[in-house]
Amino acid sequence: MLSSIKSKLIVLVLYTFSVVFTSLGFFMYYELEDIVITSIDSHLHNEVQMIAGLLRAEESDIEHELSEVAVGEYAVPLSGHYYQIVSPDKRIIASSPSLSVVGASLSIIKGSSEPSYMTIIGPERNPLRLMTQSFIVSNKTYTIQAADSLEDSYKILSSFKKIILIVFPSIFIIFVIGILVITGLSLKPLDYFSRKVGQITEMNLNERIDEQGIDMELQPLAASFNTMLGRLEESFLRQSQFMADASHDLKTPASVIKSYCDVTLGRDRTESEYKEALGKISEMVDRISNIISRILEISRLESKTFSLNIVGIDLMDIMKDVLKLLEPSASASGIKINLSGQRVNISGDRERLTEAFINIADNAIKYNKKDGSVDIVVGDKNGEALVTVMDTGIGIPEKGREKIFDRFHRIDESRSVVAGSGLGLSIVRAIIKAHGGRIEVESEIGKWSRFIIFLPSKKNRSVTSFL
Ligand code: ADP
Predict the structure, then answer these.
(1) How far, in Å, from the CA of 399 to the mean position of ligand 1?
(2) Which of 156, 198, 247, 302 yields a CA-CA distance of 20 to 30 A from 263?
(3) What is the CA radius of gyration of the chain?
(4) Spacing, Cα 389 to ligand 1 middle (Å)
(5) Residues with CB under 6 A from ligand 1
(6) 332 and 295 together in one domain
(7) C-alpha 356 to ligand 1 mean position (Å)
């Protein structure tokens, strides 16, 4: 129910408003009532003191003396302004004409020397404020009572109550309208956001939200959103590039197979011609299956469910295995491989690391010169295990050297030297990174290349995510 910001704000305002204004309303009402009653009491007190003064001055002729006060409102029957004097034997010895003319009286209350005030029902069944006080005159205790109607005061209070009941809800309604307008205006840029987000598909990932054109508070949100879009765009472009490169690299051997088949089947061939064609086709199929298995390897490495099988291993043992596997192809090319260094223990995935080092050493053989050499050294430095693989090959130009770790990236010069997919080093970097290591490359064009692989030694190791 309170799922929107607007409804939450309205409930909050309603709650605050009810608490604050109800308390304020009650406080103001009772304060006003107190002021009104206090002013009536003070007026009654003055009246009673004046009558008491007259009583003391002329006890015998009280009626005559009181005629002085029995003018104005006191002279009008049931005007709402009354007084009466009660003798010690509870007789009313004098009262205002407003009472005596109609033969009414105020209820007699026992007085004391201190004034007492109360609200009573008067002769016309209207509310009266009554003050009672006793005075001793010539050793006799007289009680003086004066009363004023509360009708006018009650009218004022009731009008005030009405004003509160009209004004406060009106203020509340104005508040709610204000909140609706303000929240509507403040949330408008969010509508723009959601519209913009809704419009983004893989076709327009290059679009951005104009950060300067929106409210300051929303600028960080727009900036984060734009950064996210940038990352999405980059990853999408990489994905499309990957698809394009993969298709391109698969298309070349497929076209070669197709043309061999067409040419060979164009007319009858001798057995040796068929054998030669099938040999070429088989070579191309190997190339295709090599690319496919590398693509599968990359997607395996990228998969979230993939994990390393970590065990304690000796890097020197791994390099010996690599050497054993590559020696036949090296000697076929007349290349000498030397392995030196020391035993270095690390924690890692034996199979993956062997695969990574095979790729690097295989490149060192593939991109070498005739009768060249490959030197592999295993060691450790500053608490890190390191393997260097140095060849005496064609070298890697400085420009774009780092790109050789990107998928499908091949340096033009190497294309003429040897066939490849451009995927090997991207797999190597992913494996090394997953082990918490890094790979660096140094080279001098036409002379040598050196790949240095750093891996955390056993105690420093922490596995990070792939790619
Ligand atoms: P591939 O060898 O299948 O082309 P890689 O990802 O293993 O793919 O290598 C990417 C590119 O890096 C190679 O095409 C080559 O141009 C360059 N390269 C890698 N290793 C060497 C090396 N030892 N010497 C010279 N160039 C190399």
Answers:
(1) 14
(2) 247
(3) 53
(4) 13
(5) 359, 363-364, 367, 391, 393-394, 396, 404, 409-411, 414, 420-425, 449
(6) no
(7) 13
| Domain containing residue 406 | 311-460
What's the angle, vertex CA 419, arms to CA 417 and CA 423, rounded to 5? 120
Name the band, by pLDDT with cuts 50, 70 and 90, for residue 467. Answer: very low
Q: Domain with 231 in it: what CATH number?
A: 1.10.287.130
Q: pLDDT digit string (tens) for 310-319?
A: 999 999 999 9
Overall average pLDDT of the 384-407 stretch: 92
pLDDT higher than threshold 60 for residue 409: yes
Distance CA 376, CA 452 (A): 10
Would you say 394 and 446 are in contact if contact means Cβ atoms under 8 Å apart?
Answer: yes
Domain boundary among 156, 173, 202: 156
Q: Is the pTM of this model over 0.85?
A: no
- Give backbone dihedrals phi and psi of 142, rounded to 5 degrees, phi first: -105, 140
142 and 254 belong to one structural domain:
no
Helix segments in 59-150, DSSP class H: 62-66, 97-100
Q: What CATH number does residue 444 fall under?
A: 3.30.565.10
Q: Which has more pLDDT, 450 or 465?
A: 450
Residue 148 included in any domain = yes
Distance (Å) from CA 340 to ligand 1 centroid: 23
Pocket test for ligand 1, best of 367, 368, 417 (most atoms within 8 A of CB): 367
